[in-house]
Amino acid sequence: MEAGNDDFSISQDDRKVLSLWENTVSKENDHYVLPIPWTEGVPNFPDNYLVALHRLKGLERRLRRDDMFNRYDENMRKLLSEGYAEKVPEKEIDWRNESVWYIPHHCVTNPSKPDKLRIVFDCACKCQGVSLNDQCLQGPDLTNTLIGILLRFRQFRYAIMADIECMYYQVIVPEKDRNALRFLWWENDSLVHYRMRVHLFGGKWAGSASCFALRRTVQDHDVTDLVRGTVQRNFYIDDMLKSVKTKEDALEVIVDVKRALRDGGFKLTKFVVNDSELLDVIAHEDRAVEVKELTHGVHAKALGMMWEVDLDVFHYTFKIDKGQEITRRNMLSVVASMYDPLGLIVPVVLHGKLLFQEATRLKLDWDDSIPHELSVAWIDWIQSLEELKDLKFMRCVIPEECSAGVSELHVFCDASQHAFGACAYVRSVNPDGKIHVALLASKGRLAPLKQVTIPRLELSACVTAVQLDSLVRRELDLDLMHTTYWSDSKVALGYISNESRRFKTFVANRVSLIRENSDPSQWRHVPGNVNPADVLSRGCDSCDIPKTWREGPEFLKDHKSNWPAFEMVDISDDALIATCEFTDLSEVDDAADAGAIRESILDRLFQQFSSYYRLCKAVAWLLRFRDFLHTKVVKRGQIRATELKEAELCIIKVVQKTAYSGEIRDLLKTGRVSKSSAIYKLSPIMRDGVLVVGGRLVHSFMECKQPPILPKDHVVSDLIVREFHGDAHLGTEWTLSNIRRKFWIVGCRSIVKKVGKRCVVCKRLYSSPMIQKMADLPDVRCQSGGPPFDVVGVDLFGPLKVKVGRAVAKRYGCVFTCFKTRAVHIEVLDSLETDSFINGFIRFVARRGYPSKVYSDNATNLVGADAEMARCLRQMDKAKVISEARRKGIDWVFNPPHASHFGGVWERMIRTIRKILMALLASPSSRSLSDYVLQTVMCECECIINGRPITRSSDDAFDLNALTPNHLLAIRGIHSLPWGDFHTADTYRKLWRHAQYIVSQFWKRWTNEYLPLLQSRSKWQYAKENLKVGDLVLIVDASMPRGLWPLAIVESVKVGRDGLVRSASVRTNSSTFVRPISKLVLLEGDV
């Protein structure tokens, strides 16, 4: 017994199953008995009774909820009444037996047949990792291919369709295997143990067993070849589709096939025929519900194909939800739901696939809405599907008057940048010379996202053609005399006919496959404008499908002597190949193989130049050399302006034939481009061999009313934009307007913006310094507890003028800021000498205690420093300061130079101090201060700042006062004591406990009220790309014009704990500096 699918041979397991059934098959009450093909004998099953019981209870709840329990119960009663199932005898009920397995079952409904309900047994249900299907072999695939059944159904005039009633249930399981097919159900509200007597729907072996038994019926009985062939070749599981030449053959199929199957226990019913006399032969109860009478408009489904029986045609209807949002997911769902096994509406489906592919190129997420322009095109296509109902295809490809003649197969193939494929036509000639041509089937595929040359796609289309021919010849029962292959690509035909040239792997493999399945003499050339496969490679709406798609080109209906003549291209001619790659392709193949220019000399040149002008000069020199080879006339001197224009025109043509070969072909054939084209709205036209804008400004006085069209994603477009941008380095609009005077580049605005962003000159003139996400707060600012001023930041401000006698002296402020409590301590310094600063620091330590860590700016960026202060600070001995601090056990940390924002903690305090000083010293009498007055003012200033709230103040009079640093520094100010926590005596008799309580309350409120306020980032919320070693940067220097800012290379970077870079060491031509990224402008990455 042969497998139904000839593409695959049967495995050793399949042979084992066939051998088992051949040796054990028997009959019981006219039904075949076949055992379950266990993998290794009857298995020992685990106890899955509770699993089945749990599933049954869940099923019952769902059925009662959906009001389907009674219908389901009726189906169960039918299983018993028909003898498909039986009760388990009481003495055998023991479910702990290792040969027992309980199968859960559930309900399946078909939306198109809501009244029909099917019981499906879940043979894949697992218990302890074991399922029934795991213990069985699947058996050989004896099912005929769906496309083969449909192709044979289209052969002849008379068509018969029928269905086997409950096919799976007609094959009996031997009693020894039935305990593995147990199931549970209710009877009068009592749980009953049942088991199947037949092979069941859900078992992975059941399909193979049913097909084996079906074919066995014609082996075990004496039947005619017609009956045997029908049973073996025209059943798709339980559906029979058969076409025959005569009524006599049709009657034999109806009567004898039904009788033969009845002898095997199969009942053939639900007949559909396309002839009234044949329908009268069939009993009324054996007719399909849809076709009780052969009246106008009656239709039935033939393996999913909508068949209008009275007209004997196929047509298509699709129900699509137009209200759903247009996303990639929904687009794919619609395209995948278009059932077309024979490929009769491939051009229509292809249009939808192309739109989906375009959405895929945008790299959107599955549930993102697609752009408006693409959405409009998709809606137009969806609406065009409604017109498919008017598109009809004759079921029979060989009419009755041609059945006595000869038939041959013609396969046309074509490719474009969008898709490629092939379509097969049956050409029948009756003895009187009458010719009939009809589309039999087609196959189409989208071109890959990665661009492939048009000749290679054309060669792939030729491969599809021979594969389609092999499929058709294998499946049809026709005696096809000859196959002729047609292609409009001379290059592809030259590949196939070549005998001597060695091709690259891609071409060689496909040529080899083509020649293994066809002979070069079978291949002919068809002009592109009459090639019916052209619409298959480009897609179209249903209303635009040409007549030639259904009936083939007109010349097939004529005598062979009138078919297109063609002289094969000799691909072994190297000169021709070079010409094909370099010169105007219309001289070779009327632009049919424009894609070959992708591998041309010019295409390689495009990648070698960074300047459009230099590219034009190089092409001009090449053209001059070409002219010399042809004319032997030497042109001397520099390239002239006319030669540059000729070179530019050549470049434009090459680019257009690379990117818009399909549009050019459409314009040459039909005068317009497809609606799915990206340049459809530009109304493109051909002018002097160039694709130009056919817009509305043709009567204007513009310098270039119809500029040539260039694609967005091409190196030449990028070079042109860079050329125009480099003229002035101005904004997008200026560059765009100048480009539009000469070229129309699709999506030009985005290219101009991209070029501007990458332009080093523009970056140097206009780019902002780098920023980075605001860093996380250091540990010392987030941890509660500890003494105030444990970690501080220090900075200087001033100068402040005081009167000493009659002289005026300068004093400076030194502010210490606590990182945790935000308290401040201010010291007055006599000068900016190192010793003066150290003395001020010692006074701070004497009053506040030793800090564990001190942060400060570098001397070059201390806040508020005037020129004299900056000069003094540069002379301050930092080493001496650090040494003195280290001797006291203090860790001193300096921020990077010119990174004032790194010290925001103390900078904010200095600004506050200045505001208070301006208020305190606003009166004229306060302008002349003595040292003592200044000391007093600074203490007052310190008290005011430390009394400021660091948490939000409440409007509720009963709430606690806002928290201030003084609550901790002065150990007072928290007036609301929770008397339940401490005894009153404690606050009077043990003052230290009172103090500890206040400190504890401060840190609790600090944690609960103040710390959350630091959570959000007021700016710099998102991480930017890190500066890297080797990057080229500008160093910001406010002391000189931007054009003189020095260039530098990043030598090293300092990475924070969050992995982000905020400062770097950069090297100029003279020195190395450490700078924050806010003082660097990135020009080029990783030079």
TrEMBL record:
Residues 783-973 form the Integrase catalytic domain. One of its GO terms (molecular function) is nucleic acid binding. Signal peptide: none annotated. InterPro entries: DNA/RNA_pol_sf, DUF5641, Integrase_cat-core, Integrase_H2C2, Retrotrans_Pao, Rev_trsase/Diguanyl_cyclase, RNaseH-like_sf, RNaseH_sf. GO terms for biological process: DNA integration. It holds the Pfam family Peptidase_A17. Gene3D superfamilies: 1.10.340.70, 3.30.70.270, HIV Type 1 Reverse Transcriptase, subunit A, domain 1, Ribonuclease H-like superfamily/Ribonuclease H. This is Uncharacterized protein LOC106152206. It comes from Lingula anatina (Brachiopod).
